[in-house]
Amino acid sequence: MNEAKPVEVPSGPRDAIRDVAVRLFGKQGFSGTSMRDIANAVGVLPGSLYAHIASKEALLVDIVSDGIHRFIAAVEPMVGATGSPIERLRAMIVAHVEVVADNPERSLVVFHQWRFLGPDNLPLAIERRREYERCFISVIEQGMATGQFRADLNRRIAVLSILGALNWTPEWLSPDGQLKPHEVGELMAGTLLGGVLA
Amino acid sequence: MNEAKPVEVPSGPRDAIRDVAVRLFGKQGFSGTSMRDIANAVGVLPGSLYAHIASKEALLVDIVSDGIHRFIAAVEPMVGATGSPIERLRAMIVAHVEVVADNPERSLVVFHQWRFLGPDNLPLAIERRREYERCFISVIEQGMATGQFRADLNRRIAVLSILGALNWTPEWLSPDGQLKPHEVGELMAGTLLGGVLA
DNA sequence: GCCCCTAAAACAAACGTTCGTTATGATAAC
DNA sequence: GTTATCATAACGAACGTTTGTTTTAGGGGC
Hints:
CATH architecture of the largest domain in chain A: Orthogonal Bundle
Oligomer: homodimer
Shape of chain A: elongated
Strand content of chain A: under 5%
Number of domains of chain A: 2
Low-confidence stretches of chain A: 1-9
Radius of gyration of chain A: 19 Å
Distance between the termini of chain A: 56 Å
CATH topology of the largest domain in chain A: Tetracycline Repressor, domain 2
């Protein structure tokens, strides 16, 4: 009775492999992780992995594309939502931090390991990243258009600064910290929107 | 007459190897770069590299420790310098960006590839990174103590946001861009210190 | 009896590294 | 001005290991 569609916990061996790969790719990088590393962590012989996955790169493609999608899905709806650009940018920052907190290692893979995608999958991943960046660019330009954001801002530099701060969060953010992810997001939004000056 | 100590351009083969390794480690990561890749780029057979370097890891140790040192040397003097915390933090941000612009690929190695240092060299590298972070923490605390920085700031989050934005710069900063590195630094300082709100 | 999954073993290729030798100039002795 | 000496730096081949992946065979659930 308590199942039917349980919220998608690592049901099969396929998901177990994926979760292990996320952890190892995040910690040691794609090139620094061998299929034997993954097999050991899963508790299986290396060759047995190939009953569930097509290749090492297919594993990376899965992780990265699903990972980017989570960020886009969390942030994109707010681009055209109601409310002031300030409120929406703030909400986007919080949403981003929450996605990172949901699984920092996966975020590390998304932000750093996409370089190792092959020629077939790399262009699409790059385009998805651009799509994500455009969400922030769009809202910041809205804010500058309405005069709520400073007019002397270099919008490119502003976007890259905010995205840089956000993209770095998986490096230090712990889901088990004393601050809840939502609180961390609010604090970052306060710092990035208002600056540090009194 | 026009020599004596020419400014230290990649004199020997040793430096040529180092420069190539910086570029490849930055682009493909440490694990993703083989000694054969380096040898090919230098124009030499793989074994010949070992007449000049001790090992692949020794190459990484050189690059990372020298790289961190450049950041510390550029920023640390400003921690105890004269001037307001605002002016000093601004100068530190500009200095950081200028070090990145001097060689973005080296900065990528410093910020991402230190994980692959062995047990002998990793603790020291981590301590150096902490030392660098403490420079920023110190100045921000000075700014909050004098009341020039907002009192409702979470200093940990503020520092991590600023450092995150800075550490991400090698990902997009080009030394040949239309904005000079110094200008990019000033713009980032403006964004990070003052926020985006009007 | 079929089907999914695994173990076990093997594959070719690429890995970091070592080795003895050789080509190249410069320096010093005669 | 030739010759011997020496350091530099690269070669070419091989080392043992690890890489991603394939193949073959066997065991348990329906």
